[in-house]
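Tip: read the tokens left to right.
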């Protein structure tokens, strides 16, 4: 659906320059929720704005359905943007007009529907986001969650194929965040949208995303399945973001160091998460081990498990052989040094 190839963005202000993005290459599949995460200043929002050409890359290219965005003329770019909805962090509603008129605004700009059909479409999307009875109110009379639902309704008004969300939940409390994320999931499933979601929270990624890219200082440092980022993070930035979200990927302090004991971190998802793996290892292999830490849960709709165990050094090879020959799947066992 979306390809970003070797894209860089450099801002120049007089004698001072800033490299916001550096050689970014991504592929976003049709119908998936793709997360982009990183700390403030990592380049997340700049990358998002390359997709609808609100920012033009200094080098590289962006294509949507094999159409190069940078090669479009003004009329073609306007038509493309009408297929891309945008949800803002701070709602960006016009306080001087009603909810209905805020949502109707992109329909009026597009000019494809008669006024009566525009109002009918507004009623449809307000019902879709759960605020059908709020059309005559003004934004100031709504809660933060309701205002974000108005923003989502406005983004959906022109029947987009792609929905770009720039920190869509960061201004909301945890309970409202959960309800808005569930709304995005429902919308994605019901309308078969491709959603690109910028966030600084691994909790948001865990709840809704299928794949994730981690940015640091304008560079991609990790990209792939959400399960891999959570259970087998490769980069220090990913591990730090996980720890800040209460999902610590580190080995318990003081666990390693005994010359005759090894610490193994085991992680698994999908089919393996439904199996009594640790019990089976102990029963069928005869090995003794200590459980130092463990967690289990869900990443979007995928069950996962992660355990840190300590066992005799001579048993490490036997454990890995056992996992390789038994009918478990998606199990990763790594020695922690």
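Filled-in amino acids:
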């Amino acid at each position: 659906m979306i390809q970003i190839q070797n894209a860089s963005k450099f801002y120049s202000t007089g004698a001072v320059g800033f490299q916001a993005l550096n050689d970014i290459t991504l592929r976003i599949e049709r119908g998936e929720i793709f997360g982009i995460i990183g700390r403030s200043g990592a380049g997340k929002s700049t990358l998002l704005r390359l997709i609808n050409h609100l920012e033009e890359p200094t080098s590289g290219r962006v294509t949507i359905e094999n159409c190069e965005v940078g090669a479009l003329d003004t009329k073609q770019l306007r038509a493309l943007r009408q297929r891309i909805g945008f949800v803002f962090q701070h709602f960006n509603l016009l306080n001087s007009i009603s909810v209905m008129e805020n949502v109707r605004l992109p329909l009026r700009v597009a000019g494809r529907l008669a006024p009566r059909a525009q109002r009918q479409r507004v009623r449809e999307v307000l019902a879709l986001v759960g605020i059908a009875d709020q059309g005559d109110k003004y934004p100031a009379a709504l809660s933060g969650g309701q205002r974000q639902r108005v923003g989502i309704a406005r983004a959906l008004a022109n029947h987009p194929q792609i929905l770009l969300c720039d920190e869509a939940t960061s201004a909301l409390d945890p309970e409202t965040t959960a309800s808005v994320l569930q709304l995005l999931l429902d919308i994605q499933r019901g309308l078969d949208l491709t959603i690109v979601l910028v966030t600084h929270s691994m909790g948001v990624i865990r709840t809704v995303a299928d794949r994730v890219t981690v940015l640091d200082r304008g560079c991609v440092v990790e990209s792939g399945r959400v399960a891999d980022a959570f259970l087998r993070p490769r980069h220090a930035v990913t591990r730090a973001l996980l720890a800040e979200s209460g999902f610590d990927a580190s080995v318990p302090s003081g666990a390693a160091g005994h010359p005759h004991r090894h610490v193994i971190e085991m992680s698994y998802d999908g089919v393996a998460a439904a199996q009594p793996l640790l019990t089976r290892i102990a029963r069928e292999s005869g090995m003794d081990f200590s459980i130092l830490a463990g967690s289990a849960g869900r990443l979007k709709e995928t069950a996962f498990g992660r355990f840190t165990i300590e066992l005799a050094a001579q048993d490490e090879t036997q454990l890995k052989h056992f996992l390789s020959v038994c009918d478990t799947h998606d199990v990763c066992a790594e020695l922690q040094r």
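Residues 174-191 form the longest helix (18 residues). The chain has two domains: 2-244, 261-336.
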